[in-house]
Fold this protein.
Amino acid sequence: MNIGTQMNPRNIMYHQGHDHGHNHHTVDKDLPTYKLWISILLNLVITLAQFIGGLVSNSLALLSDAAHNLNDTVSLGIAVYSRKIGQKKADLANTFGYKRAEIIGAFINLITLIIIALVLIKEGVERFMDPVSIDGSIMLWVAVVGLLGNVVTAILLHSQRKENLNMKSAYLHILSDAFSSVGVILGGWLILYYQWYWIDSVLTIAIGIYILFHSYHMLRESIDILMEATPSHISLPELENGLKKIDLVDDIHHLHIWNLNESQTLLECHVRIDESNMQYIERIKKAIKDFLSASYNIHHSTLEFEWLPCENEHSDCR
């Protein structure tokens, strides 16, 4: 039996609605917009140069690098767009706001990148079986341009590389682009001086596999957030035991934890207390919220207090 159904002297659903964790979105506040736009323009130039160079030189490795850079450009574009959307206030249709727009964008972006990587690997294998003539000089110098552009972009984004999934994804991809550009430079040199045309196919397959490896882990992270899975860094049993140790808390159940986005973790649970301790609800609530904030960086929690077990143990309680 819930307090609200028995006594109804006050609203027993305590919702910390005034602390939505806005202070945790440091990427939106700290990263100047001009840095994002410069990074986007640089990556567009690199992508176009590699795409045209790949077509002219007949290099699949350059085309695969162009696809990777295009993904970086899209990721940064999503970061700019989601930054704008994230400033929109919550409304009746979206009571939690628009903070998941970036995760949805990242999910679509990663799916697209995986498809491109699979196509490149397929083309690389076919090209390896039937090598074609490649202009090593164009391949080499276009890769040098790509390397310089990626280094500049990495410097611009270095300080914000850990702030959110899109920035992390873009930064890692830019670094991997820099390394792959070094590989393409080496490949272009080998083709130019030794006519090892097969090296282009090997580089293409290697870049495709590298894209798949990193995309898989970030795709899992975005799916976990969209599926409202328990955050991987939180042990549900440990958190539950910690809550049960708080003074005057008899039991914790119906416990759910999920991420709204990468920086905001939400929690809801039922808190059973003794009927004689009803006057201490505010004190218990504060102790729980202080524990969640200090130990798990959870600043948005919904707590329902009761003094008897739930009436429906199977559907509503755990």
